[in-house]
Amino acid sequence: MSSEAGTIKLFFREAIARAVREEMAGDERVIVLGQDVGAFGGSYKEFLGLYDQFGAARVRDTPVAEAAMVGLGVGAAAAGYRPLVSITYMDFLMLGLDALVNYAAKARFKTGGQVTAPVVVKTTAGAKGQGVAHSQCLEAWLMGVPGLVVVAPSDAADAYGLMKSALRHDGPVVFVDHKRLFPTAGEVPLAETFGPIGQAAIRRPGEHATIATHGHMVRIAAQAAERLARDGVSCEIVDLRTLAPLDVATVAASAARTGALVTLEEGQLTCGVGAEVAFRVRESVGAVRVARVGALAAPISSNPVLEAAALPDAARVIDAVRRVLG
Amino acid sequence: MSSEAGTIKLFFREAIARAVREEMAGDERVIVLGQDVGAFGGSYKEFLGLYDQFGAARVRDTPVAEAAMVGLGVGAAAAGYRPLVSITYMDFLMLGLDALVNYAAKARFKTGGQVTAPVVVKTTAGAKGQGVAHSQCLEAWLMGVPGLVVVAPSDAADAYGLMKSALRHDGPVVFVDHKRLFPTAGEVPLAETFGPIGQAAIRRPGEHATIATHGHMVRIAAQAAERLARDGVSCEIVDLRTLAPLDVATVAASAARTGALVTLEEGQLTCGVGAEVAFRVRESVGAVRVARVGALAAPISSNPVLEAAALPDAARVIDAVRRVLG
Amino acid sequence: MDPLATLKSMLLIRRFEAALDARPDRGFQLYSSGAEAVAVGVCAALRPGDQLLSSGRSIGPALARGIDPRLVMAELLGKATGPAGGKGGRGHLAKPDQGFFGAHAVVAGNLNIAAGAALAAQLDGRGRMVACIFGDGAAGAGALHETLNIAALWTLPLLLVCDNNGLSVSTPREAALAPARLSDLAAPFGVPAASLDGTDVEAVRDQAAEFAAQARAGGGPAFLECRSERFFSHSTATRETRSAAAMRGVLERCPIRRCAAKLQAAGQLDAAGLAGLEAEAEARVADALAFADASPYPDPAEALSDVV
Amino acid sequence: MDPLATLKSMLLIRRFEAALDARPDRGFQLYSSGAEAVAVGVCAALRPGDQLLSSGRSIGPALARGIDPRLVMAELLGKATGPAGGKGGRGHLAKPDQGFFGAHAVVAGNLNIAAGAALAAQLDGRGRMVACIFGDGAAGAGALHETLNIAALWTLPLLLVCDNNGLSVSTPREAALAPARLSDLAAPFGVPAASLDGTDVEAVRDQAAEFAAQARAGGGPAFLECRSERFFSHSTATRETRSAAAMRGVLERCPIRRCAAKLQAAGQLDAAGLAGLEAEAEARVADALAFADASPYPDPAEALSDVV
Ligand SMILES: Cc1ncc(C[n+]2csc(CCOP(=O)(O)OP(=O)(O)O)c2C)c(N)n1
Ligand SMILES: Cc1ncc(C[n+]2csc(CCOP(=O)(O)OP(=O)(O)O)c2C)c(N)n1
Ligand SMILES: [Mg+2]
Ligand SMILES: [Mg+2]
Asked: Does residue A65 contact residue A57 with C-beta atoms inside 8 Å?
């Protein structure tokens, strides 16, 4: 059952299913739209059981039509519902950006508050052997869209808590998970809890350098910190958890203490999460040594050798930390 | 005719038309696809005359179907042609991102060099009274896509030279212009010239602060520099001209001289052009005071009062320069 | 809705746009004149709880849906007293609490949004339905295909109304769309469709009413093509591409004159009565302008409100 | 292409996939077994200068187009000797110089790319055409609508082949697509269409040949729906959702057995002859595996080559 008191060990995918189940049970307006989310239970079983419990009217398999899927969710949201739209991989979210960015993100503003679109677009980022068009991390695009909230949990507890909060938020939320997180397990509170939107978390305290990252990369940061610790280098890991709004205060406070910041993301560095975090931290704490780590500037191949070569790993993070520590 | 020797005064839109005309005349593989690009000559008359000269087979009016427009251009490019696809406003490019980002940008890589897609996607960014879904600047999204070249001319000469180079480039290029630039005029060389891709230009030399910007904002920077000059503050204006690849060297050298950098863009600041320029410059010149200027973090209304309030203007640039000069 | 009411509604749209167009401060606008019968006919088939969505060409739809001309004028002129406080403006008019879910300036961008609103109406189970007016140009967009397919699969209470004025900016419908009739696009999905003269307000109203009744009864979506005219150039910023001769033919097909003539022939209206209705429309428009003129622009600080 | 050649080609695909699937290092794969007749029948109608595009389910199309199994195996196993140096891999196979323009793993993502290639073929004016194989799931995407419309308007030499195996991952075609027959989607655009049994390689070949001839003659696009089967689960990473009983029915509809039986009935093939062809296929696959095994993985530095 549980290793710690008051918690239960759940797989990341189970934590998502639990959050959606609780919200669907408590609020009729919550519905799920997506490809193979019904009896199949989702590509990563993250919706398992919802169809049996809530039925075909509230858990809807859709055609392969991402533009309409997002549009339907946004439209139903603007009409008073709270749909969760599952876009299997973030690469395919491009097909639905018009409804998400041109409509949902602007609905509240352009109607002077008459309309809000509380839709949650859940999508899976990251590379795991599926190639150039099934591996991208586009969080940075969404961070720059006023009106969108973007959350990116790194463990089961946050997958649960942030999904709960996302489904209660009164505007569009993009919930970004990762292929490599679904099979990971973690302790989740037995009691109903809500993850704080806009609040980063310090996953590991440290003195010499701050590593600011999110999602699956938090695990890579932990590996790097472990190895650096053996050499007496102590890293503080800040899990951003929410990318929009960004909790600069927590990262800045940490960087101010350590004096060194390494940003880590799986996606592209150019105009990426790290560039933004670095800028905002420097604005608020002035002189701090900074380095950023991300994917190589190339498409991500499904080839095992090339994928591994392109993605950030502990070794690269360690190099970056040593660089900023000069 | 001409104010300077060897040049001719052309409107920005005429400079684009001239470049496309010359390339179409010299290379049968160059074709134009877009809405109302034929007899109508384009929304801003930037294609005027091409239809009469080259005919309906090479200058094709398309339906309102941005996804297919980009896909057709990319497919024809991969099959050996050099299409220019006109996407009226950059907001609508979202509808065509799948073909551009998931296919064109990766075609060369994923085929190991067997296929390249020399397509030019020309699109118009920026706000000019047309509202929340017709005003966006999404250059930063594209800068982070490996495989894409992004150019953004600020005057007629570069509109001509960079369009020429874009149509000769052996991969996908996004040519970003701006609603407010079409009616501006400038001196363009009479002789055939090619704008250097990946090379920024110093538009105004200065000693105290560097302003790095692109497109229409170069004109705003010039206004700010003029006014600051009256107070004895001398600004160097670097026109990035190409956003991918980014000419960091020129900006860094300038910032190293002046010791202060202000980035200016019309789009959103978060994960924007300025965040990237600032990071890369700091990487290469170390300590430099930096500030960034961009739109307010909100959708851009067509409302004259609210649009003006949201967009960067000379006053804000002046404040930023004074801020970095402490 | 009685015949005189539909005529009144069409007259209001026509006069409203003429007055707005005469304003030097009107900015960028898209007009519905020539297609009044489409919006008015469709709205005659809608009930208070229903929702209407439209393309950026939304003055006709908004007024036909019964939104106070004062509010519409204020919004279009960027005044703080508009339903969106002047933030939406042209192309984004909205008053959902009165059944106008809103316009959207992205061509075909409102189709799947409308399907989502129809899904909400279906889940509500109160017999409400949704109508979405879009142009012929939008019929070339994949959004129509995805929306028709899902609306048919899920029997959504959705009426798709194609206001076919034969043009997308300068591009003739024949050069942009392969189908012989745009209503044919519904057939593969088993969605009932009709194609009719969009200058005949009664024909539009009757067909829309039939489809609306089907939708309310759980019969699912329908597709209504209305062949209308565009009396102005595409927008106030777009040059006219049609010849003077062609324009004469276009202006011939006036839905208002057609409606008035029919009522006069039927003895339901005489010259004096028509003059009275025109004067009434003029008065409402003058009042709307006065209201807008008396209204302030929004505070610049509003540029940052209602964002998240 | 003679009947024995089509049978050989189908056998090669079947044995190739069986051998690949048996490899612990095969990674994520999508198989064509059950739909061999679709790719082989279509390719029998193509000429050297033509181009074939496919969905991510591309082993059948690549081999049917005549790409050397050694190259295909090397690419799928991530070896540097693959046509893309191992960079493309599953879902992105390509060998354009041999008429396989390429696979694309984005559902429906290859449709408008294929139309672009067809536009190039039309502009070349050398009687070449383009075929694009996509799944039933892709028929729900707006890309099909936009592509059909433009291909029809511009009479592009494009053959759209829907490999309808009745499933999109776990979702039955009936639950995802409203049309009674997917080929009906072509009708509104005036695009000729046919719907046939995709396990009958001769039927596919003959209809594809007719449509290809039309396209070459300037007759424009066509739509060919082939009702096939999926013998494996959606992918090597996807759990099977069909019952054992259902699978028995699925495996009944084997295009290879059907073709072999027909040839035997016609006296063009005997048991020994069939065994010989099977052995030949086995041998080619074994050779392909040996080639791939003897090939190196790409140098990690390749991760940064061929980008811009
Ligand atoms: C996706 C998209 N592409 C292009 C445009 C530019 N545009 C605005 S209105 C219009 C014409 C649309 O024609 P139609 O749908 O027939 O509507 P009409 O203007 O005739 O009422 C176009 C191309 C747009 N707003 N959205
Ligand atoms: C745009 C997009 N959405 C979703 C997916 C995930 N996906 C991969 S294959 C597939 C099923 C497609 O079904 P179908 O088109 O019938 O092809 P089949 O697998 O049956 O050959 C899906 C949904 C994708 N690759 N691309
Ligand atoms: Mg029209
Ligand atoms: Mg299928």
From this structure: no
Contact D143 C144 (CB under 8 A): no
ipTM field: 0.98
Ligand 1, residues at Cβ distance < 6 Å: B 35, 64, 66, 88, 92, 95; C 55-57, 105-107, 135-138, 165, 167-169, 234
* pLDDT (tens digit per residue) in A170-181: 999 999 999 999
Q: A102 vs B131: CB contact, 8 Å cut-off?
A: no
- pLDDT of A82-108, one tens digit each? 999 999 999 999 999 999 999 999 999
Residue B235 contacts D where some CB pair is shorter than 8 Å? no
> If you take atom 17 of ligand 2, which residue's CA is the nearest one?
D135
Residue of C nearest to A99 (CA): C109
- Beta carbons of D189 and C178 less than 8 Å apart: yes
Q: Is A216 designated active site?
A: no
C128 and chain A: CB distance < 8 Å anywhere?
Answer: no
Residue ranges of chain C whose pLDDT lies below 50: none
B253-286: b or e for each residue (b if 16 or more CB lie within 10 Å)? bbbbebbbbbbbbbbbbbbbbbbbbbbbbbeebe
Nearest ligand 2 atom to the CA of D169 is 11
**Is A178 an annotated catalytic residue?**
no
pTM, rounded to two decimals: 0.98
Which letter, b or e, does each residue of A43-72 get, where b requires 16 or more Cβ atoms within 10 Å of its Cβ?
A: bbbbbbebbeebeeebbbbbbbbbbbbbbb
Answer for the pair A295, A311: CB distance below 8 angstroms, yes or no: yes
Q: What whole-number distance in Å separates Cα of residue A183 and Cα of residue D59? A: 29
Nearest-neighbour CA in chain D from C233: distance (Å)? 25
Average pLDDT, chain B: 97
Looking at chain A, which residue has its C-alpha nearest residue C120? A76
- Alpha-carbon gap, residue B200 to B204, rounded angstroms: 12
Write the pLDDT tens digit of every residue in C212-267.
Answer: 999 999 999 999 999 999 999 999 999 999 999 999 999 999 999 999 999 999 99
Continuous segment of H or E residues that includes residue C281: helix C271-294
Contact predicate D306/A314, CB 8 Å: no
Question: Alpha-carbon distance C134 to C116, whole Å?
Answer: 16
Would you state the structure tokens that stand for residue B62, as one six-digit string? Answer: 């398309």
User: E strand or H helix at D240, and its extent?
Assistant: none
Q: How many contacts, defined by CB atoms under 8 Å, are there between C and D? A: 68
Among residues D110, D113, D130, the alpha carbon closest in space to that of D121 is found at D130
